[in-house]
Design a protein that fits this description.
Elements (H helix, E strand, L loop, with lengths): L5 E7 L3 H10 L3 E5 L3 E6 L2 E6 L9 E6 L2 H13 L8 E2 L5 E6 L5 E6 L4 E4 L2 E4 L4 E4 L1
Length: 135
């Protein structure tokens, strides 16, 4: 298994809306926003902002895969190595991931990200411009 890149870091924030505004003022672009979390991008790198009520994951860092089979192979390899991993989770935006813990208890995520997805006027739109389902 060869990792290609560290794709994002997830941090806890007290107010998602204020944190989004802060990081947008630093030059990041919003890729996804919900009531309890948001995801911003700076080029290919991401920052997830997690509210105190967000229950899916805590602070973590994530490795990105563009090929789902590579992520699934990595998942099986980590299980064979007795590394604690969660089940693979399908996300609303078309991505999929699983979480694991390192030797010191830090969370990491392996994320399958098929294409860059941007938000425009309340609708999800893929990078090449095709309209997708409403959020």
């Amino acid at each position: 298994m060869k990792l290609k890149r560290l794709g994002h870091v997830a941090i806890c924030v007290q107010d998602v809306d204020k944190a989004v505004e802060f990081y947008q003022n630093l030059g990041m672009e919003i890729a996804w926003k919900d009531a309890d979390w948001a995801y911003l991008k700076a080029g290919d790198d991401g920052l997830a902002l997690l509210s105190p009520g967000y229950e899916q994951a805590g602070p973590h860092f994530g490795f990105v895969f563009s090929d789902r089979s590579e992520m699934e192979t990595a998942y099986e390899q980590l299980k064979v190595q007795n590394i604690q991993v969660s089940p693979v989770h399908e996300h609303r935006d078309g991505t999929a991931s699983f979480y694991g813990r390192d030797l010191d208890g830090n969370w990491f995520e392996y994320l399958y990200e098929p294409e860059a997805i941007v938000i425009e006027k309340g609708r999800r739109q893929k990078a090449e411009g095709r309209r997708e389902n409403s959020l």
